[in-house]
Amino acid sequence: MPAIASASVAIPIGSAQRIEADLHLPERACGLVVFAHGSGSSRFSSRNRAVADALHQRRLGTLLLDLLTREEEQLDKYTAEYRFDIERLAERVIAATDWLHDRDDVLEMPIGYFGASTGAAAALIAAAERPYSIEAVVSRSGRPDLAGAALRRVKTPTLLIVGENDEPVIEMNEAAKAQMTAAHVTLVIVPGASHLFQEPGTLDQVERLASDWCVRCLGRPPA
Question: What is the mean pLDDT of the chain?
């Protein structure tokens, strides 16, 4: 396991607001993956942290985001007002991407996105808005259908991962894939897995699929 530098950071999203994130940079990192968490989740998601750890082992950095401010999170717990506000979530992913481009320590690194649930839609919209900045997208149990018309504008290689027993989400991903025009869009259905990949060994497959995809797309030799 390479040595990892970690820091909690605050990313500006307006004149006075900030979203919180955890930045992890393995020694001699060759790329960085921004995590967009799903509805009702946060940067502390155990499943996404497990995927992030797998990426660290492959010398890929990670930025795990809270897409809502603390005030928004508190309100959303009771009202679910913001978790399906895909435009708002996508704007936060874009803001984090632009913030990364202003940092000297990651300036030359290729960037990818990992999105879960509604975070996958936000990541795809952000990829459509930043086509020359993003080189990989991975969706786990995602709702790419919520990206709407942006799907046709995504040119980034995209991996869609869905559990075999998550039938409604499989249908949503198949429909979204059919709309996408990117040269490389792959849908992988993990046998025996449900929406949360809680079954033994299924999350391991997500880690392997995601890290292989990101290394293939982002894994330039470190400088």
Answer: 92
| Side-chain half-sphere exposure of 182, counting CA atoms within 13 A | 25
Q: Per mean pLDDT, which of 28-42, 64-78, 135-149 is the most reliable?
A: 135-149
Q: How many helices (H) and strands (E) does the chain have?
A: 6, 8
pLDDT value of position 1 = 63
Report d(CA 105, CA 96) in Å as an integer. Answer: 15
Residue 139 pLDDT: 97
Q: Tell me the chain's radius of gyration from C-alpha atoms.
A: 16
Question: What is the number of domains present in the chain?
Answer: 1
DSSP 73-126: HHHHHHH--STT-HHHHHHHHHHHHHHHHT-TTTTTS-EEEEEETHHHHHHHHH
Average of pLDDT values for 99-116? 92
The CA-atom distances, in angstroms, between 171 and each of 25, 55, 124, 168 are: 36, 28, 18, 5
Domain range spanning residue 211? Answer: 4-218
| 223 part of a folded domain | no
Is the pLDDT reported for residue 223 higher than 70?
no
Six token digits for residue 3: 């040595």
